[in-house]
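Q: Hi! New to this. If I give you a protein sequence and the SMILES for flavin mononucleotide, can you show me the bound structure?
A: Yes, paste them in.
Q: Okay, here:
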Amino acid sequence: MSLVDKLKWRYATKKFDSTKKIAADKLQNILDAVQLAPSSLGLQHYRVLVIEDAGVREKLKAVAYGQSQITDASHLIVFAAETNINEEFGKKYIDNVAATRNAPREALAGFEGMVLGAINSRTPEQLLLWAQKQAYIGLGVLIAAASEQEVDNCPMEGFDPAGFDEVLGLKEKGLTATVIVTIGYRAEDDDLSKAAKVRRPADEFFIHI
Ligand SMILES: Cc1cc2nc3c(=O)[nH]c(=O)nc-3n(C[C@H](O)[C@H](O)[C@H](O)COP(=O)(O)O)c2cc1C
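A: Thanks. Here is the predicted structure of the protein with flavin mononucleotide bound:
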């Protein structure tokens, strides 16, 4: 099956089979894909929480309109944007580039100037929005990677970010919950799995120039 076929197979799963868990190697593969997601300047402006703990998920469900996917899926993934994107964050990234590519720090001065300029020219609100946009790219890659492995998924914005931040202690970590996705296996009686996909007609969606 091609990726397009897998994306036709996937749907936003409403009812997960709570008895089925994702095998460790499959989960790792999905997380590896997320780590390879591109981000603006390569900064990876967010972190990814992988939550399996039943007690924590019960608390999170209470601040996610009681959506059952939170507790019934195999895993809950939380994309949390960094709230402290500053010079230190940028310099740490340049250190990583230098170490990974075995490049002298001085050779990266131009790139470092660009990175620090991109950070310093943004207001705190713009920095947060920038980080959150990158988190959504990670979400997209996760959805594709999970679907490719026939792991069901449901992206979710129906939750209270402040409630998630509180339960997960994200504020102290310099993070804020941005978007979440539950992954696992569909329940056989999830009626939506049989529903036809609703999408805008291609000629109303794509603009070829
Ligand atoms: C960012 C985002 C947030 C969403 N939030 C929720 C949610 O909170 N609960 C839910 O059941 N579905 C949620 N959905 C699923 C959408 O309703 C679903 O993707 C859309 O109707 C298209 O259907 P399909 O994914 O089955 O093709 C969300 C999807 C996205 C991309």
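A: The domain at 3-185 is CATH 3.40.109.10 (NADH Oxidase). Let me know if you'd like me to explain how to read the tokens.
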